[in-house]
Amino acid sequence: MLVLILCTHNSARSQMGEGWLRYHASALGLKLDIVSAGTAATRVQPEAVQVMAELGIDLTLQTSKALSDLPRPLEFDVVITVSATAAEHAPEFPPHTVRRHYPFEDPSGGTLDRWRELRRQINVQMQQVAQALATGQALPPSRAHAEPLGMVKAG
């Protein structure tokens, strides 16, 4: 099964989602081909790498890539968008593609505590996705809004 996690810049939320989904799929013995991408590519945020490493998930080999950089950008079984911009600008996928939207706030410019809260939120969501895929159940329904990360800002 080929899974895409799509964000705006493929720099944090989608990278963390890819890391968590790989982790949970592996723990469940689930064979998934997981990739993340953005509507545009930038770089993987060092804060994302740092907070995931705190829990033993290594993002250091992951790179930021645009959807158009992928060899088969429309041939996914499951597409999960994690930002409103990605959901808005995503291309049309074939009818067989299961699409879900699980938005998360962008933690850029925030404290490491905001990044850790994002890590927690994405972990919960990707664990639910992996469980559903492992048991053949429907994926959790899409959400309209992101859960707040809190009001802590760098400054």
How would you describe the overall organization of this protein?
- By secondary structure, this protein is an alpha/beta fold.
- The protein has a single domain (2-135), classed as 3-Layer(aba) Sandwich (Rossmann fold).
- Helix content is 34%, strand content 13%.
- The chain contains 4 helices and 4 strands; from the N terminus they run βαβαβαβα.
- Strands 2-1-3-4 form a 4-stranded parallel β-sheet.
- Helix 1 (13-27) packs across helix 4 (112-135) and helix 2 packs across helix 4 (112-135).
- The longest helix has 24 residues, at 112-135.
- Keywords: Arsenical resistance.
- Residues 135-155 are annotated as: Disordered.
- Residues 1-132 form the Phosphotyrosine protein phosphatase I domain.
- This is Arsenate reductase.
| Overall tally of domains | 1
Helices and strands: which structural class? alpha/beta
Gyration radius, rounded: 14 Å
Taking the alpha carbons of the first and last residues, their distance comes to 43 Å
Care to count the β-strands?
4
* Proper CATH architecture: 3-Layer(aba) Sandwich
Mean pLDDT: 94
Under CATH, the homologous superfamily reads: Response regulator
Tally the helices: 4
State the CATH topology.
Rossmann fold
| Shape label | globular
Topology:
Blueprint lengths: L1 E6 L5 H15 L5 E6 L7 H8 L24 E4 L2 H6 L8 E4 L10 H24 L20
Parallel strand pairs: 1-2, 1-3, 3-4
Helix pairs in contact: 1-4, 2-4
Summary of the model, kept short:
The protein has four helices and four strands. The protein has 155 residues and is of the alpha/beta class. The protein starts with a strand and ends in a 20-residue tail after the last helix.
